[in-house]
Amino acid sequence: MSSNSKDLESNQTHDDEEKPLLQATTSATAPTDDAAAQVSAAQATMAKAFKSTADLAKHLPTGTVLIFQILSPVCTNQGNCDNVNRIMAGCLVAFCGLAIVFLNFTDSFKDSSGHIRYVVATFKGLWVIDGSPPPEPEIAKTYHIKCIDFLHAFMALMVFAAVALFDNNMESCFYPVLSYDTRQILTTVPVATGLVGSALFVVFPSSRHGIGFPSTS
Fold it and tell me: Are both 14 and 94 inside the same structural domain?
């Protein structure tokens, strides 16, 4: 009997010693789980921010604006325009605007051999620019023109128009004498248009991979 009672006491003592250890282990792992959740949330936020930045780079007409900034001084004769220069400047703006609209309807895909093919979206499917065979009709239908394409083209065109209106050479060529109110409008409109356009591009992203941004899948 005495040996049995000693065994019971030893077992109770052993259980009492184990309980704090289990509690300590549970309390030690809880902060680790919280820290992991915080890290994963931060990583998700950073990934979303990087994706939004990539969408902006894809949708904003950065390349066309660069070409416009290079050719604008040549076409406008550094702002000292005559009739020929005004025609050239107008053609430059029209060409850049058409290029921006066109690029918003381009896309790309990888063919069976792994080569990237650039296409133009149509209402029924797509048109392969280089004349190579198109993908299967079921796949081609997924590239057709959508309403979001017109929104992206319109906003990109508005951003470019705001930059073109704010250009000093264009200003000197087409409207050299400005009132104070007009100058204030030309100062604020490009900034406001850029902010609104960037916000819409982030809220309504596109899955297209047009010229300059080829598909990786």
Answer: no
